[in-house]
Write a structure and sequence with these properties.
Elements (H helix, E strand, L loop, with lengths): L10 H13 L2 H8 L3 H15 L4 E4 L2 E4 L1 H28 L4 E5 L1 H18 L5 E5 L12 E5 L8 E6 L2 E6 L1 H6 L5 H5 L5 E2 L9 H7 L11 E2 L2 H9 L5 E4 L4 H6 L3 E2 L5 E2 L4 E5 L7 H15 L4
Parallel strand pairs: 3-4, 3-5, 8-9
Antiparallel strand pairs: 1-2, 5-13, 6-13, 7-10, 7-11, 7-12
C-alpha cells in the first residue's frame, strides 16, 4: 500500500478495526458504520495483510483481540478519542457556545429537565440541548457530557461522581398499603414490572432479589424497555416497579408512587457525569456542569 506522511494504512481500515475491536463484533461494527459485516471483514483482512499479523482470534461466537490487536486498539481508541474532543471543541466554538447534555428519558423527565430549566433562569443566554435515549450514548462527538449509571467503557471520557442511589420496590398507594411489611418471598410472588435495557449495568428485579438473599423464583410480569413506562405502569396499579429512591423522589413526595418497606438495596454503581475533561469544555459547559453538581449537593436529587 502507498504511504503518506505518517506511514499509516488507509483510515477506512483503521476505522473498521477500531469499531470491531470496541464491540468485539463485526456485525455490531457494521451496524455502527452503516456497512455490511462482509465489508468490515474485508477491511480488517486488508489491514492484517498490510501489517502481516493477525489482529483477531476468530471464534465460533464472536472474536477476541490478539496481543497485536489489543495494542493497536488501545492506540487507536486513545487517538480517535482525542481527535473527537478537538473536533467537538471546534464545533462548539462555531455553535455560539451551545451546550449538549444527554441522559436516559427517565433521568431527563424526573430530574435533568427541571434542573436545566432552573439553570436557564439564572443563565438565559446559554443554549442547552438535551439528548434523551434509553440506550448507551455511542456517538458522542458533539456531546459535552451525559448522565450515566455506572462507568463508561471509554477510557478517554472523564467521570465525575454524582450520587449513589437506593433501590426500593414501589407501587400505587393501594398496592403499597396491601404489601406494607411484606417479606421478600411475598414480594417475589407479586406482579413485577421488568425493565429490558440495552445497558446491562442497570440493576434488574432478579439482581435485586438475589443480592438481598432471596433464592426462590420471582414472578413474571410486563416487560418494557423504558423506565418511564415502568413507572407509569406502577402508578396505574399494573404491578411493582423497582424504584431508584433519589431519582424518583418527586413521584414519592407527590404520593403518586409509594415505597414498600422495609426492603431496600444500595445501588451497586454510582451515577456519573461522563464526558470530556473540564479543560476541554467550554465556559458554558463548565457552568452547566457545576450547576448540576451543586443541584446534587443541595439535594434536588
Amino acid at each position: 500500500m502507498s504511504r503518506r506522511h505518517y506511514n499509516l494504512p488507509p483510515l477506512t481500515t483503521l476505522a473498521a478495526f477500531e469499531a470491531a475491536a470496541r464491540h468485539l463484533s463485526f456485525k455490531n461494527a457494521a451496524d455502527e458504520l452503516s456497512v455490511t459485516p462482509g465489508a468490515v471483514s474485508h477491511q480488517i483482512k486488508a489491514l492484517e495483510g498490510d501489517l502481516d499479523t493477525t489482529l483477531f482470534q476468530r471464534k465460533h461466537r464472536g472474536v477476541d483481540l490478539t496481543e497485536d490487536g489489543q495494542a493497536l486498539y488501545e492506540a487507536l481508541s486513545s487517538s480517535f478519542g482525542r481527535i473527537s474532543i478537538v473536533l467537538a471543541t471546534i464545533r462548539n466554538r462555531k455553535s455560539g457556545g451551545k451546550v449538549i447534555v444527554g441522559s436516559t428519558t427517565a433521568v431527563a423527565a424526573l430530574w435533568l429537565s427541571p434542573a436545566v430549566i432552573r439553570f436557564w433562569r439564572e443563565m438565559p443566554d446559554v443554549n442547552v440541548d438535551q439528548l434523551s435515549q434509553d440506550r448507551p450514548f455511542r456517538d458522542r462527538q458533539d456531546m459535552d457530557f451525559f448522565i450515566r449509571y455506572g462507568r463508561d467503557s471509554d477510557p478517554n471520557l472523564s467521570h465525575t461522581p454524582l450520587f449513589r442511589d437506593h433501590l426500593i420496590p414501589v407501587a400505587s398507594p393501594e398496592i403499597a398499603k396491601r404489601l406494607a411489611g411484606a417479606s421478600l418471598a411475598a414480594l417475589a410472588a407479586e406482579r413485577l414490572i421488568h425493565l429490558d435495557s440495552e445497558d446491562r449495568t442497570w440493576t434488574t428485579w432478579p439482581d435485586w432479589f438475589r443480592q438481598l438473599g432471596h433464592e426462590g423464583t420471582i414472578a413474571t410480569g410486563p416487560r418494557v424497555n423504558s423506565y418511564s413506562v415502568a413507572l407509569q405502569l406502577a402508578r396505574k396499579g399494573a404491578g411493582l416497579a423497582l424504584g431508584w429512591q433519589r431519582l424518583i423522589q418527586p413521584m414519592l413526595q407527590s404520593g403518586k408512587l409509594v415505597p414498600i418497606a422495609p426492603h431496600q438495596l444500595t445501588a451497586p454503581n454510582q451515577f456519573y457525569l461522563v464526558g470530556r475533561p473540564d479543560e476541554d469544555l467550554s465556559d458554558n459547559a463548565r457552568a452547566l456542569k457545576n450547576w448540576i453538581l451543586q443541584e446534587v449537593n443541595d439535594g434536588s436529587v
